[in-house]
C-alpha cells in the first residue's frame, strides 16, 4: 500500500483555513440569538435554530431583493449571450466597413475604470428616468466588451469549413450563427454566462449609487443595509448572508470546471 | 470538396459589389447594439467626466466652469492625500502577499494526491463570495463584543481587540480579508500556468543535478514570469479600486483610517454632492491606473524578448 503523501499535513490545514469563515457563516446562521449574544459567544450551536431564516424570509423585503437580483442577473446574462455572440460572430467572420475601428475602440474601453464613468452614467440614467428602478442596473450591464471579445476569440478559432457549405446553400448569417456555430460554442457561452453572473450578482457599488428605494434593492445592497439596521440580530444577518452567497456558491460547486476555466482564461490570455 | 468550393466563393475578387454592401449591413446589424451600448456608456461618460472635472456641479443645478480649480484643490486637500496614502499602503501589502502566496499555494497544490480537488475547491471558493457578503461576515467575526475572534482570544487568555474600531488595525484587517478571498484567484491562474511549464525542462534540470528548490528558482519561476506580470497588474488595478469592502465594514473609519481613493470619490460625488471635485479625483486615479498599465505592458514586452 502506498503511504499517504506528507503534503496532506500542509494542504489540509491550509484548505481548512480558507473554508473556516464560510463554515462559521453557516453555523452562526442557525444559532439562536441567545447563544450568539452570550459572552463569550458559543462556537458551535447546541441545536439548529432556524429563527434567523424565519425572521429574514418573513421580513417582506428579503424575498423581494432576491427576486430583484435574479431579474437583473438573468437579463444581464441573457443579453450578454445574445449581443456578445452576435457581435463576436460579426467581428470574427463578416467583412464590413469600419469593423476594425469599431472592434479596436470597443476593446480600448476595457481599460476605463468604473469610477471615471459612474457620475455621468448616473446622470444619463437620470435623464432616461431609470434611476431608482431595476432598469438603471440592467441597461449598463446588457453587454460588456469582454463578452464580445471572448466570443470573437472563440469563433476565430473555429474552422471555417463548417459554415462555408451553409453559405453556399444560401443560408443567412443569423441562421448559420444559431444553427451551426452556437451549438459548438458551449465553452464560450458558459464562460460569458459565468463571468456576467458573477459580476452582476456580486455588484454593490452601482446599485448603491443607482437605487434609493428599499423595495428596489438587490441582495448585496439589501444585506448591507439590513446589517446596519439589525446589528444586534447577528443570526438573522448571517441567515440573510447565506441567502446572498448561496446562489453563487451552488453555481460554483455545480459548474466548478466552467468557473475555473473562465476565470483562469481571463488571466492567461490577459 | 466543400472546402475547395468554399475557398472559391470567399475569394474577395469574385465577390460582386452588392454582396459586399449587404455584408456591411449584416455586419453592422450584428455589432450595432453592442457598439452603441458600449461606446455610448463609456466614451460619452469619459468625456463628460473630463468636462465635469473643470466644473462645480452638485448633480442637480446647472454647473459652473472653474477651470483647473478642482485639480488645484485636490493637490492641497489633506483628506485626498490621506486617501492616496491608505490606498498605497493597502496595495503594497495586498498585491505582493497575494501573488507570492498564490504562487506558493499553487505549487503546493500542483500534485496528484488524494483530496487534491477538494483542497483546490476550498482555497478558491472565497473568491466567488461578494465583497458585501465578506464584509458582513467579517464585521460579525470581528465584532468586539459578539464576535468569535475575541471569543477565541479570550479562550487563549489574550486581551480582547478593537479590530475595526481600532484605527491601527482596520486597514491591515482589510488586507487580511482581501487575502482570504483574493489569493484563490492567483492560485487558479498560477495552476493553469504551471501546466504550461515544460516537463522536459524540469526533467533536464533534475538530471543536471538541480535540487527541488533550484528547479523552482531557476526553471519554474522564470517560466511563469508572464503570469506573474499579469497577476501583478491585475491585482494592483483591483487594489487601487478598493471600495465595496470598505463601504460594508468601516465606511472609511475609524477616524478616516480606511478612507481609500474610491471611497473618497464616492463620498464627494454622492454624499457631499461635489461631483466636479469627485470627477477630478477619478481622473487622477484613472491616469495613475493607465500609467501603471502601460509600464507593466512595456516590462512585459521586454521580458518576452
TrEMBL record, chain A:
It is a multi-pass membrane protein. Keywords: Cell membrane, Membrane, Transmembrane, Transmembrane helix, Transport. GO terms for cellular component: plasma membrane. PROSITE patterns: ABC_TM1 (PS50928). Signal peptide: none annotated. It is found in: Cell membrane. Residues 66-255 form the ABC transmembrane type-1 domain. Its main location: membrane. The chain crosses the membrane at residues 65-89, 101-122, 134-155, 176-199, 234-255. Coiled coil: none annotated. One of its GO terms (biological process) is transmembrane transport. Belongs to the binding-protein-dependent transport system permease family. This is Carbohydrate ABC transporter permease. It comes from Kribbella albertanoniae.
TrEMBL record, chain B:
It is found in: Cell membrane. Belongs to the binding-protein-dependent transport system permease family. The keyword Transport applies. Keywords: Cell membrane, Membrane, Transmembrane, Transmembrane helix, Transport. It holds the Pfam family BPD_transp_1. The chain crosses the membrane at residues 25-51, 88-109, 121-142, 170-194, 215-237, 275-296. InterPro entries: ABC_transporter_permease, MetI-like, MetI-like_sf. GO terms for cellular component: plasma membrane. This is Sugar ABC transporter permease. It comes from Kribbella albertanoniae. Residues 84-298 form the ABC transmembrane type-1 domain. One of its GO terms (biological process) is transmembrane transport. It is a multi-pass membrane protein.
